[in-house]
Design goal:
single chain, 5-stranded parallel sheet, 4-stranded parallel sheet, 11 helices
Length: 319
């Protein structure tokens, strides 16, 4: 198994501030786990004797399952905390839960929480590694890494590509992590969506802002669609679903202005007929949505390996 050329710090809480060398090293390590996952015998003993706890305060299928599969394929013991049935529902605070789990001496916590910054706070109170599985509207670092791996494998690079991230930018932690990663790796990023779903301070992230799919998708190499996160919305952000799809849903007509060979991405779950049409979502030549899921397991194996597999504390810029 190829070793990591640079080591990770204790935690992976976000992409912002992570050096390009560390991102590249994680992607390179992820590449080796793709071969592992495609082999007949997928299990390794890299994390034998280690314990990983998945602590999800928000519902998740893809991310939680992906982390579980990743940890088990590395030989770790995995515990999935059912928060809905835990002491949190009885009034226990996040920090009380953290301290209780910390006393069990796990090696890593994978945490998803509905409040931005909650995972960072928890990481300050425990002795093990913490991986951010998505916190509020803040970040989702492993999603950005798996997206980058998918793009790099298809396009051979990240630097110089033009990427359009489209839809509900305001509520999307996926958008934020991808912006940080893509900019760090030398890609040009556009964000496309209605003004009501665009953060007021989005300009500070160094992206082009477009309020039209026709201009936003012009000559792009990658179209990354986002779902409408209605669970985070209070009030009306779009006139109607049909109107939203008409102007901002991805379909064959809107794809015509992209560069030849442009890829279609979506972090899932997809709302067909809302932000994406089935014809483009299922396009075997351009859509890499299912590849993203496969890359997710490899990336999360790499992150767990880098954090608790014995190669850490030499990451450029790491505390």
């Amino acid at each position: 198994m190829r070793s990591l050329s640079v080591s990770m710090p204790r935690d992976l809480l976000g992409i912002e501030g992570l050096p390009a060398a560390s991102i590249s090293a994680l992607l390179d390590l992820s590449e080796t786990y793709i071969d592992t996952n495609r082999s007949l015998v997928k299990r390794r003993d890299t994390l034998s004797g280690r314990t990983v706890i998945n602590l999800f305060f928000e519902a998740s299928t893809r991310t939680r399952t992906s982390f579980e599969v990743a940890a088990k394929r590395l030989g770790a013991d995995v515990i999935n905390m059912e928060v809905a049935a835990s002491s949190v529902r009885k009034g226990e605070t996040l920090l009380d839960t953290a301290m209780t789990l910390n006393a069990m001496l796990p090696d890593a916590l994978v945490v998803r929480h509905h409040d931005s910054g909650a995972v960072n706070l928890l990481a300050q109170k425990v002795n093990c590694s913490v991986i951010n599985g998505g916190d509020g509207q803040h970040e989702h670092p492993t999603q950005a890494l798996l997206d980058a791996l998918t793009i790099r494998r298809r396009k051979g690079k990240l630097e110089g590509l033009l990427v359009a991230i489209c839809g509900d930018i305001l509520h999307s932690r996926v958008a934020r992590s991808n912006i940080h990663l893509l900019k760090t790796m030398g890609a040009q990023v556009r964000v496309v969506g209605p003004a009501t779903l665009m953060p007021t301070d989005i300009d500070r992230l160094g992206v082009e802002v477009h309020y039209s799919m026709r201009t936003g998708l012009k000559d792009v190499d990658i179209v990354m669609m986002l779902r409408l996160q209605t669970e985070r919305m209070s009030g009306s952000f779009v006139p109607s679903v049909s109107e939203y799809f008409r102007f901002f849903g991805l379909d064959e007509e809107k794809m015509k202005v992209t560069r030849a060979g442009a890829l279609i991405m979506h972090p899932g779950p997809m709302n067909r007929g809302v932000e994406i049409d089935s014809a483009v979502a299922d396009d075997l030549q351009r859509s890499v949505i299912h590849e993203q899921v496969e890359m997710g397991v490899a990336v999360r194996m790499a992150c767990l390996d880098a954090l608790i597999g014995g190669r850490r504390n030499a990451l450029p810029g790491a505390a």
